[in-house]
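Morning. Coffee machine broken again, so started the prediction first thing and wrote up yesterday's gels while waiting. Chain of 45 residues, entered below exactly as on the submission form.
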Amino acid sequence: MPGNLTMTPEEQRALEKARKSRNIALGLILAGFAFLFYAITIVRM
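Came back before lunch.
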């Protein structure tokens, strides 16, 4: 295992961009599920 665990600023930006994209996607999925459960609840009334 290499002992050098530092990242260049470019690698850090790429990692942060990927993380932000993933977080946005997960947020949209969560919002979609919340809306789906809300819609199902309204339809069943």
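The first helix runs from residue 9 to 44. Going to sketch it on the whiteboard this afternoon.
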